[in-house]
Design the sequence.
């Protein structure tokens, strides 16, 4: 998730409960100690925060696979192994193939960077800083640029510079070199059309050396070149084959933030610290393992059970999305999906457990009401089938889902999310509830699927209108790929469909989700404009009214 994404829920109280607790039997205690053991291992510093595609992820996936094996599950990953590998696009590196020399001095790679949408290019020239002649690089003082736009809330450096670079290129410039760059950072994942000329940012330290005298002529030698960076994430998949028609899919992501390298840490200091992710989501992963153990002993053979520990969730549901596009059993045979993400911090006094996806099948009402009063948990239902966790990927495939969540807390996405802070008995009570729901649901029938409202995810960009689409955060191509679409909203009315790729809103290119949100900020209620988008290979345009 990206961080990108905070949860907002609408709810109603199923029942008010006395807070007494029932005496735990031997078996209960054994399961609770198993939960604690799994969380302690997965959230140990040794696993370095289990960032997708790292050694920490590998240690965790090995542990989970061993548990699945010891329980007697069948491997259901690639070629019937435990793992399903998937690529993670990490952007483009410039340091290997780019260089900059000014007056014969090489500028350190930490003191300059090219915009990632620059072309691969090499040039030498002797331009004057002040003159804007054809056939040489042009210079721009970024400090002045920002100052001039201080009062403009919609000023966006990247799209502003891109427009300037295109303009300069059309007038014969061979590169655009920006100096006095205060706080621009290299964005390896920047998306968009490749520019006609290289755009280079030089930091203040080096700028002071070469750009204080604007009448100076500089000897410039530069090369821009990029290498694609990719990691490989791994889903861990186990199966109980009861020879049944339907399969119940139970999932939990096991990846977390590592040292916060992917920019989704809530640690404002930006320090590189291990984010142990005990609640997020070693707790759900531990529950997944223990649910597998319980259902393996289940006498009823009316359903098969597929258990998936997803990776890449923190990056934008990468692992679950990949599974829905590369399923190792027919998705049509999946009766419903249960997702557990952060089930370890049940508040002892309020005992509130949030259950999302309640509106994705009429069956859920029956399943829960037939369980009667729950003595330990206060259940809050949310109807939406979407939200920033893996159930959304399956909801988008019209599969009924349930999402179990004990709520946000002050350690969310911080190094302090440690094993010692979990409520293991609470986690066990949730496990018991899920077991009852599974035993109670869909044994003799395929669940009916109902669409629900799309949930809004948090963003920093300021906009007052939306199109009513859910972006696909794992899409690395140019544009914004539409994952979900809400009825009765501007995009739907314009005829946009899931899978379309939005390229431009009015005059504003939308090469990335961030640019798309910036573009939305330019419109207000009642405005009419056009949206340019790709459907399969054809570029289409449609009228939109906000
Ligand atoms: Zn999570």
Sequence:
């Amino acid at each position: 998730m990206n961080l990108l994404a905070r949860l907002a829920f609408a709810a109603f109280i199923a029942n008010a409960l006395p807070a007494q607790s029932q005496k735990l039997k031997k078996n209960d205690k054994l399961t609770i100690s198993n939960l604690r053991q799994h969380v302690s291992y997965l959230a140990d510093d040794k696993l370095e925060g289990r960032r997708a595609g790292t050694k920490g992820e590998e240690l965790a996936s090995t542990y989970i696979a061993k548990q699945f094996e010891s329980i007697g599950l069948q491997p259901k990953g690639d070629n019937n192994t435990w793992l399903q590998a998937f690529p993670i696009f990490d952007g483009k590196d410039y340091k290997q193939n780019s260089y900059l020399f000014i007056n014969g001095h090489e500028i350190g790679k930490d003191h300059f960077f090219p915009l990632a949408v620059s072309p691969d290019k090499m040039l030498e020239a002797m331009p004057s800083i002040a003159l804007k002649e054809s056939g040489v690089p042009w210079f721009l003082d970024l400090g002045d640029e920002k100052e001039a736009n201080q009062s403009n809330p919609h000023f966006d450096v990247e799209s502003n510079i891109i427009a300037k670079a295109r303009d300069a290129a059309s007038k014969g410039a061979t590169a655009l070199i920006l100096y006095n760059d205060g706080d621009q950072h290299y964005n390896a994942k920047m998306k968009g059309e490749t520019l006609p000329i290289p755009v280079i940012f030089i930091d203040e330290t080096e700028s002071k050396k070469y750009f204080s005298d604007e009448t100076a002529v500089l000897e410039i030698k530069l090369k821009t070149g990029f290498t694609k960076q990719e990691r490989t994430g791994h889903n861990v998949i186990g199966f109980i084959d009861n020879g049944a028609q339907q399969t119940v899919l139970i999932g939990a992501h096991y990846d977390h933030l590592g040292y916060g390298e992917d920019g989704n840490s809530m640690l404002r200091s930006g320090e590189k610290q291990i984010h142990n992710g005990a609640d997020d989501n070693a707790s759900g992963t531990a529950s997944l393992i223990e649910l597998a153990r319980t259902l393996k002993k289940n006498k009823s053979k009316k359903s098969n059970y597929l258990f998936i520990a997803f990776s890449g969730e923190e990056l934008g549901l990468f692992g679950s999305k990949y599974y829905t596009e590369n399923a190792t059993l027919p998705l049509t045979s999946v009766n419903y999906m249960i997702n557990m993400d952060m089930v370890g911090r049940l508040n002892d006094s309020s005992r509130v457990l949030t259950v999302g996806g309640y509106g994705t099948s009429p069956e859920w009402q029956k399943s829960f009401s037939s369980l009667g009063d729950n003595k330990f948990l206060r259940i809050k239902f949310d109807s939406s089938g979407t939200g920033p966790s893996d159930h959304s990927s399956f909801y988008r495939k019209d599969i009924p889902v349930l999402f179990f969540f004990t709520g946000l807390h002050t350690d969310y996405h911080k190094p302090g999310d440690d094993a010692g802070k979990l409520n293991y008995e609470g986690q066990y009570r949730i496990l018991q509830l899920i077991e009852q729901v599974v035993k109670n649901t869909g044994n003799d029938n395929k669940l009916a699927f109902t669409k629900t409202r799309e949930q809004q995810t948090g963003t920093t960009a300021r906009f007052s209108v939306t199109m009513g689409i859910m972006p696909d955060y794992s899409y690395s191509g140019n544009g914004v790929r539409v994952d979900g679409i809400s009825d009765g909203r501007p995009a739907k009315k314009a005829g946009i469909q899931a899978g379309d790729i939005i390229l431009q809103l009015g005059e504003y290119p939308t090469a990335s989700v961030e640019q798309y949100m910036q573009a939305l900020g330019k419109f207000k209620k009642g405005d009419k404009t056009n949206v340019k988008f790709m459907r399969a290979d054809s570029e289409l345009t449609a009228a939109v009214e906000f």
In short: The chain has three domains: 3-90+230-440, 95-225, 469-545. Residues 253, 280-281, 313, 341-342, 389 surround zinc ion (CB under 6 Å). Residues 6-20, 457-461 have pLDDT under 50 and may be disordered. The first helix runs from residue 26 to 42.
